[in-house]
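Researcher: First entry.
Model:
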Amino acid sequence: MPNEANDGAWFAPKRLGYGAGLPIAWQGWLLLGGHVAVILGGTWLFQRRPEAVAAWVLLTALLPLPIYAAKTRGGWKWRGPGGA
């Protein structure tokens, strides 16, 4: 089994479902905090234009997904009952 402490992962895999779990490295916490801050900042900036808020949230929610996927230990795959 490879040494998981040195695998470069920023996020733990979810125990159930598909995607990333909580951050396990400071880089993951920084990315997650920055991601939330950018989404909230855009919603505040565009607060009088609901269509712009919707577009901003959708765009900023999707753009970093490849980073989350690449930095999740073991990658993104279905985990849990009936899968894995």
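Researcher: Second entry.
Model:
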Amino acid sequence: MKTKRAVLESILVRYLDEIQRDPKRSIRSLVDLGQVASGHKIQNHFVDLIQQMLTKDDSPYYKMIQNTATLVDHKRLLSFGINFAWNGLTQGTKQIRKQTDKLQCHIPWSLTLRLRQDASSLSQAEYLRLIGEGSKLGICCYFLFPADGESIYLALDLAEQCPDCAFCVVLPEGFDSCRKLISVPVNVILGLDSCSIDWKECVRLLRQRRMLFFLYRYYRSQEDMDEIISGSWAKQIVPYAGLASLLIFDGSAETAQQSSTIARYTYSTRMEQRYPTLMLDFYHDCLYTDNLISGSSCFVGLTPEGTGTTVRDGIEITTGQTIKEAGSLIEFLRTVPSI
């Protein structure tokens, strides 16, 4: 695996340089390579999506890819990208399918961990043990939601100590102190709240440091959803957007019934290639990816105290099961039903 990763990295280094000069030709060459290498339906799915992009000569995704290759440090792109796509969605997928058959329980492609540092929360050692167990099962992608400044550093420490995994660190809602983030591991992509006061200044700072980032926003009410579907939010963020733009539902049971309209909106923007950023809906696309990998959907998260969460009717809810009571990640996953 180390040899294959080294070969893949050397190929991508060359393509990153070429993309800056001639994105269309280079991306077509990469797609040809992907067609030869793809072997699982999730890989074929992504290759098919890129092929659709190539049919539109004026696709804004060309600009998105060129901007990413030009504005982001290549070491960061390679580390996060290979960990996410190769370790997670390629080698990890094979391991997940193998372990699922062996253990007879659903193994999700990612884990969502909400972090807070206080006496009742999981310790750093417990998180590291959890991620270590997850990696052995093939789970190499982690969404971390730190609650405050102190837990941001916990999230970054976890990423630094797990260099073969990909970490999406969603900075707390309203956070706009990017100057304090001095050392960010290369296997991290940072999520910035596009509704914080100084989010544009944060984007400027992260671009200056050639960081990998995405913009996100929570949506809770019908008014939020109307603003998103109208394209108003996209219009605000597109000049500043990174590789992706993430929408996260955080409303009530009443509004959850309408959240599927946001999932349809994000899907249609990707298929129609409306914006130079990938529009995603967090819960729906997590479940969609899981279904591509395993044939059924399963969302697995943990509260800071270690209580399990899953998604029901578009809402993340607690299951009542705890990782401490289970004793291991495998035993904990046995309690999580598919959706």
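Model: Note on the second entry: The CA atoms of residues 99 and 137 lie 6 Å apart.
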